[in-house]
Amino acid sequence: MKTVIIGGIAGGLSAASQIKREDPDARVIVLEKSDDVSYAACGMPYNLFYKDKPVEDLYALNLDEIRTGRGIDYRLNQEVIAIDPVNKTVTVSDTHQARQYHETYDFLVYATGTTPRRLDLPGFDAADVFYFKTLADTRLVKNTIYDQAPTSALLIGSGYTNLELVDVLYNMKITPVILERAATILPSFAEEIRSKVLEKLEEKGIRLHTGVDIIEKNADVVKTATGEFKAGMVVVSIGIQPNTGLFSAAGGELGVAGAVKVDRYLRTSLPDTFAAGDCAEHYVRQLGKNGFMPLGPTANKQGRLIGSNIVNNKAMKMFHGIDQTAVFKFFDLTVATTGLSERQIEESGYRYAKTFVDTPTRGAFPGGGTMRIVLLCEKGTGLLLGGQMIGQDVVAKRLDVLATALYKQMTVFELAELDLSYSPLYAPVWDPLLIAANNAVKKV
Ligand SMILES: Cc1cc2nc3c(=O)[nH]c(=O)nc-3n(C[C@H](O)[C@H](O)[C@H](O)COP(=O)(O)OP(=O)(O)OC[C@H]3O[C@@H](n4cnc5c(N)ncnc54)[C@H](O)[C@@H]3O)c2cc1C
Q1: What is the pLDDT of residues 333-390, one digit of tens each?
Q2: Tell me, what's the pLDDT at 368?
Q3: Within a domain: residue 53?
Q4: Which domain, by its residues, includes 133?
Q5: Which of 135, 148, 207, 415 sits at a 20 to 30 Å CA gap from 102?
Q6: CATH number, domain at 429?
Q7: 424 and 375 share one domain
Q8: Residue 187 in contact with residue 337, Cβ under 8 Å?
Q9: Ligand 1 test: best mutation among 5, 13, 18, 33, most atoms within 8 Å of CB?
Q10: Is the beta carbon of 45 within 6 A of some atom in ligand 1?
Q11: pLDDT tier for residue 421 given thresholds of 50, 70 and 90
C-alpha cells in the first residue's frame, strides 16, 4: 500500500506517522514544498524573544527522526502541482533541482494548510511588510527585528495571532499600533470578554484604531482614510484562506469557507483521497455539521484518524469533531473560549441565558489574580452551550474543565455539582467555575 501526503506539517506528518505505526510495511511519501520539516507554528511569536534560539527549535522532529526513526519518505522542497484522480498520480515539482516527476498512490492525503489573505494595495509588496504564517516568515520578521532594530510596528488586523504579536513586540520595546477594518475586535467573543482585552490595551497605552480603511503604503508611512501611520515594520494578518487550488483543479468539491469538503471519515469527493487540518472542514459537534476552525490540535487529530482509516480502510472510524475550544495569551491575561458563540447560538434558534461573574482565582494565599467567566446556556434546560473566560492565572485549565462538560452535554446544574479540587494555592473554596455555575443556575 502506498500513500502520498501533500503537506508535511501538523495534519500531514500526523497522518504519515499513524500509517507507519499501524502498518510498518506501508509506503508513505510526504511531499512538503517548503524547506522546513513539521514545526509548531503556535510557538513562532514567542521565539522572537530569543535572539539566539534558532527558529528551527520549533521543529517537531528532525529529518532523521522522521525518515529513519519513523520510516517515512519525507521530502522537502517538493511542490505538488497537479493531481490526476483517475490515474491516481500526482505531479511533483522538485524546486531544489528544477525537475518534475510523477508519483502514483493508492491513497492520497491532502494537508496543504492555508495562505494568509494578502493586502492587495499599493506599496504592500515591500520587503518590510510581513505575513506571520510560516517558519520562513518568522525568520524574516526575526531578522528585521534584530538587524534593523525597529522601534515601532503597525499590526494590520486584530485576530489572535496579531494580538499575540502585539504582546511580544511591546515586551521587546517595539511600540505596536493596531489597525483594524471592522468596528471592533474579537467578534466571536462576548462583549464582557472583549471589554477586558480593550482595557488591557488601554492600560498598556497601545493604540487600536478600528473602522480603518487602508489606502496605500509609501516608504514607512501607511496611508488610511482617516490618517497616516508611520512604522518601522508592518505585519498583515487579515484572515486566511484554505489552500485548495490544486484540489479543486482536480475536480474536488469544496465546502464551508472554501475549505475541502469532507465526510465524517474525512474522505473527500476524490477517490481514496482524505483531507486534514487547516485546508479542510471541521465537524462541529454541537452544530451537527461541518464548520471551519483551523487550529493545531484539530489538524493533528484529523491527520492521525486519516492514517488509521487508510490502514483500516474496511473499518474506518468517524472524526468525533470539535467543540471550538481555543486559548491565547495577551499580556498577563489568558483569553479562552469553548462551545458556541452567541452568534452561533442565535443562528441555531436556542433561547439562551448569558451570565458572567468576576472571581478571585485563589484562596487566602499570595499570588493569583481575578478572572471573568461568561456562561451561555439554554433557557429552561440549563444545557451548556458555550463559555468564555479571561483573566490572570489558571484560566486555560478551567476552560478545559468547561470543554469537558460541554463534550458530555452537561447542564449548568450538573456543572455546579462538580467536585473540583481546593487548596488556597490553587483556588478559592468555591472554584471560579462553580461560582459561575451557581450564578447561572439562578438565571436559567
Ligand atoms: C502565528 C501562529 C500561531 C498559532 N497559534 C496557535 C495556537 O496557539 N493554538 C492552535 O491550536 N493553533 C495555532 N495556530 C494554528 C496552527 O499552527 C495550525 O492549525 C496548524 O499548523 C495546521 O496544520 P496543517 O498541517 O493543517 O497546515 P500547515 O501547518 O499550514 O501545513 C501545511 C503545509 O502544506 C504545505 N503545502 C501546501 N501546498 C503544498 C503543495 N502543493 N505541495 C507540497 N506542500 C504543500 C505548506 O508548505 C505547509 O507547510 C497558529 C498559527 C500561526 C500561524
Answers
A1: 999 999 999 999 999 999 999 999 999 999 888 888 999 999 999 999 999 999 999 9
A2: 86
A3: no
A4: 118-236
A5: 135
A6: 3.50.50.60
A7: yes
A8: no
A9: 33
A10: yes
A11: very high
